[in-house]
Amino acid sequence: MSEERPLNFIEQIIEEDLANGVNGGRVHTRFPPEPNGYLHIGHAKSIVLNFGLAQKYNGKTNLRFDDTNPVTEDTEYVDSIKEDIKWLGFEWEKELYASDYFDQLYEYAVQLIKKGLAYVEDASSEEIASRKGTPTVPGTPTPSRSRTTEENLDLFERMRKGEFKDGEKTLRAKVDLASPNMHMRDPIIYRIKHAHHHRTGDKWCIYPMYDFAHGQSDSIEQITHSVCTLEFIPHRPLYDWFIKELEIFPSRQYEFARLNLTYTVMSKRKLKQLVEEGHVNSWDDPRMPTISGLRRRGYTPSSIRTLCERVGVQKRDSLIDVGLLEFCIREELNRTANRVMAVLDPVKLVITNYPDGQVEEMIADNNPEDENAGSRSLQFSKTLYIEREDFMENPPKKFFRLGPGLVVRLKNAYIIKGESVEKDVDGNITTIYATYLPESKSGGDHSGLTVKGTIHWVSADHAATAEVRVYDRLFNSENPNAEDADFKTFLNPDSLTVIKQAYVEPGLLQTKPGDRFQFLRKGYFTVDADSTPEKPVFNRTVTLKDTWAKESKK
Q1: % helix / strand / coil in the chain, to the nearest 5?
Q2: For residue 431, which of 348, 325, 312, 506 has the smallest C-alpha distance?
Q3: Would you call 391 exposed, middle or buried from its count of C-beta atoms within 10 A (0-12, 13-18, 19+)?
Q4: pLDDT tens for residues 94-107?
Q5: What is the pTM for the complete model shown?
Q6: Which residue spans within 373-426 are E strands per DSSP?
Q7: What's residue 173's pLDDT?
Q8: 316 neighbors 355 (Cβ within 8 angstroms)
Q9: For the purposes of burial, counting CB atoms within 10 Å of the CB of 271, is it exposed (0-12), middle (13-18) or buried (19 or more)?
Q10: What 3-state DSSP class applies to 524?
């Protein structure tokens, strides 16, 4: 974390704790994901914060999977979460699971029953809800609330043994049915679920609720600073109540604002819907805000960490412009990505006065931003491919590219002049004919001509064929969550354009998945996992400029 910026409010709390010797001068955080989906960029902010705090204050961070719901969990998600955290550049102290503590949590529940602070409830979830009251009207007790301790201990033991069906009984904490905080109105702390658990198998058929497992797991691990998002503020009194009544290590909960981005949904439920209904190809589809999707799109760990630092740690929710994320990767790739030439919408260009069969080697800088990046050699020949948009038959006044009678420089090569075109039966241009100035070669130009435009090209005889996937934002609404309609109605129909036959420099056949490049004048691209040496596949990470900002101003 950068030293120049002022301390955020959690760092201020930690520094005060350290100065006062609280927790023996220790800082121990945790990251507690549920293994029921892939992590998204909102989780990245929590990862960067929790692991970053431990790094800054010589502390430790546990990775603890909140696997208290056996129905939704999958080891596929566990593996992906671990991969994402490592990719972001962090190492956990211990890999732990809430299920590690099922025996201890059961004992804690028994302890509460013995203290008269928990009871077995017969009422259905609907009846419990109907009796809860409102923030201004107290709840009313069910008959179960007056059960004896002995009765509750017996019923809870029978719940554990599997004598009751799902939903037939629950265990509730006996807190305060008149509390203005609805979470304190005798919350359910155990429910029956006859389901196979990915780690404990069929040992348990009762499972603790998140509010009960969370704080007690923190306490068992002696977590000093338990950092959550703002929606857990009303849960904090219950978190503290359990710790106080169980007389266990006093972990403390602190809340910060989650990361919300424009043109994005962050709900795991909604992301799962997009995958299962086929609106995207997978959890790691490059249009998804998942960490694995961003990685496949070409984002780097440092660009995501930079976003998290720029956004900061706030106490109030806000909607961050996704353009800031795009700026972070664009700024980094401008410094680090080698420049290459790729023609995405090709049209043939024949230089009529260039010698037949001649091939020249043109020298091109790999990255003008990096003096150590070196250069490469490009083959130049009589027949090239250029972008179709770089030629106009009837160009307007300020068109500084190629047209009949117009001159333009071919990047790292010669100045050429447009002469004529050939068309198919539908009137589409199939070949452009031009002449070149032999004395205008880049690096040794003595033609005396000054041209305003430079375009990119590849040699038709030497270029490699590639598939290019041009990704754009998944939604065309700035806040698809806030609209009244179904969020899926705001899906951007143009979020993916697949170009099956683009032409690229032959050197790009030697790339591997994850390699990143700037396609000159086209954007930043990365090699996709589907890529093969025979047929490379490139994903557009981000445009060269913020085209969305320009469009929205129109």
Answers
A1: 30, 25, 45
A2: 348
A3: buried
A4: 999 999 999 999 99
A5: 0.92
A6: 375-380, 383-387, 407-410, 415-423
A7: 98
A8: no
A9: buried
A10: strand
Region of residue 332 (left: phi > 0; alpha: psi -120 to 50; beta: else)? alpha
Q: Residue 258 catalytic?
A: yes
201-211 pLDDT, tens digit per residue, is: 999 999 999 99
Instruction: Note whether 141 and 177 are within 8 A (CB).
Output: yes
Calculate the alpha carbon distances from 340 to 102, 363, 364, 441, 506 in Å: 56, 12, 9, 19, 10
Q: Which of 1-5, 187-191, 393-397 has the lowest mean pLDDT?
A: 1-5
Residue 272 is a catalytic residue: no
CA 454, CA 67: separation in Å to the nearest integer?
A: 57
Give me 361's structure tokens: 């080697």
Of 34, 93, 360, 419, which residue is the catalytic one? Answer: 34
Residue 545 CA: distances (Å) to CA of 370, 523, 541: 20, 8, 12
Instruction: Give whole-number Cα distances, 405 to 391, 395, 408, 421, in Å.
Output: 11, 10, 10, 12
On whether the CB atoms of residues 436 and 353 are closer than 8 A, the answer is yes
Q: How far apart are CA 102 and CA 359, in angstroms?
A: 72
Check if 409 is active-site. no
pLDDT tens for each residue of 309-344? 999 999 998 899 999 999 999 999 999 999 999 999
Count CA within 13 A, CB hemisphere, residue 208.
Answer: 25
| Contact indicator for 320, 311 with CB cutoff of 8 Å | yes
Helix residue ranges, H only, 313-459: 322-336
SS3 533: coil
Contact 139, 177 (CB under 8 A): yes
3-state secondary structure 105-161: HHHHHHHHHHCCCEEEECCCHHHHHHCCCECCECCCCCHHHHCCHHHHHHHHHHHHH
What count of Cα atoms within 13 Å lies in the side-chain half-sphere of residue 95? Answer: 9
Amino acid (1-letter code) at residue 70: P
Of 56, 131, 258, 348, catalytic: 258
Q: Tokens for 34, please give them.
A: 């549920």
Catalytic residue among 30, 172, 236, 268: 268
Left if phi > 0, otherwise alpha if psi is -120 to 50, otherwise beta: which for 44? alpha
Q: Six-digit token pair at 199?
A: 């780690």
Tell me if 350 sits within 8 A of 432, measured CB to CB.
yes
Q: What is the average pLDDT score of the chain?
A: 95
In this predicted structure, the answer to whether residue 482 has a pLDDT above a threshold of 50 is yes
Of residues 314, 366, 318, 297, the one with CA closest to residue 525: 297
CA distances to 106, 189, 192 from 97, in Å: 15, 18, 20
The conformation of residue 450, written as its DSSP 8-state character, comes to -
Neighbour count for residue 296 (Cβ, 10 Å): 24
